[in-house]
Write a structure and sequence with these properties.
Helix content: 40-55%
Radius of gyration: 19 Å
Strand content: 5-15%
Shape: globular
CATH superfamily of the largest domain: GAF domain
Structural class: alpha+beta
Order of helices and strands: HHHHEEHHEEEHHHEEH
Distance between the termini: 34 Å
Largest sheet: 5 strands, antiparallel
């Protein structure tokens, strides 16, 4: 199903003459890698991206030649290369809030005993780009590179809440059908999440609709002047450690306060989550 969706999305985007399909496919190859991977072969990359294996072979060869992938240990498997590391470090250094948020989110993780996450939209999913684990407390096993669905995750619902109607239509057109996300469902999710943000400052997806039964999470959007879309800060844990009541009365308010503190540090004196409300 993922393969067909990716291929359909690529065809839809390619109707715009400005869209560089080869570049998009090369970036898809790079995004296929996860921190837990012990390298990937062309067949695995093809399976994850929906790109034909013959095309993947040409793309990985080119990316290796340019230093974005390497064959350092096992010559049948690719790994991120030094050029990709340099590119990531440059991007991280240029986005100021990432470093500023780190001590705040680590403090929150330790105080609440939850796994704190930073997520961004990555095409058809929400992508985890940073994690802060509570010291000396067992937490969820979610890592950088893991992707969450829009429908049925607090992070996804919080992100949908930040979108204008036009942007919502654009996002839904990309992800429609993923976990039953129809246009009507997206509008309902957006409305509910916006009401939660206005009333409490955070979003909690209904656990009965959550994409994974062993995860509870609460989310707050954050808009950086460096970026065009909102990002999402989230606290999550096992249901027995993080009940809905605890999310509402303790962890959600603390997460909201932490994001507000980050806004003050950055000189942003408004609530970014509500800018389109």
């Amino acid at each position: 199903m993922k393969r067909k969706a990716d291929e359909k999305g690529m065809k839809d985007e390619a109707t715009d003459r400005r869209f560089a399909t080869t570049l998009a496919r090369g970036l898809s190859v790079l995004r296929a890698f996860r921190p837990s991977d012990d390298g990937l072969g062309n067949a695995e990359i093809s399976e994850r991206t929906g790109i034909p294996k013959s095309t993947v072979s040409r793309l990985t060869f080119t990316l290796q030649t340019l230093g974005y992938l390497n064959h350092a240990r096992r010559h049948d498997r690719y790994r991120p290369g030094p050029a990709l590391i340099a590119l990531g470090n440059m991007a991280s250094a240029s986005i100021t809030f990432v470093d500023l948020s780190a001590p705040l989110m680590q403090r929150l993780a330790d105080e609440t005993g939850t796994l704190c996450l930073l997520l961004v939209r990555d095409a058809r999913k929400m992508l985890i780009v940073k994690t802060w684990r509570p010291r000396s407390v067992a937490s969820l096993w979610l890592e950088v590179g893991h992707r969450l669905p829009f429908n049925g995750s607090s992070s996804g619902h919080a992100f949908l809440a930040t979108l204008s109607e036009g942007n919502l239509d654009s996002v839904v057109a990309e992800v429609q059908g993923d976990r039953g996300l129809t246009p009507d469902r997206a509008v309902a999710v957006r409305q509910d999440a916006q009401q939660q943000l206005l009333s409490s400052g955070f979003v909690i997806a209904d656990p009965a609709e959550y994409f994974a039964a062993n995860i509870h999470a609460v989310a707050v959007p954050f808009h950086s002047r460096d970026l065009s879309e909102s990002l999402i800060f989230t606290c999550g844990a096992l249901p027995e450690m993080l009940s809905v009541e605890r999310m509402r009365t303790e962890v959600g308010p603390k997460l909201h306060a932490t994001v507000q503190e980050l806004e003050r540090i950055m000189g942003q004196g408004f609530t970014p989550a509500n800018r389109d409300l």
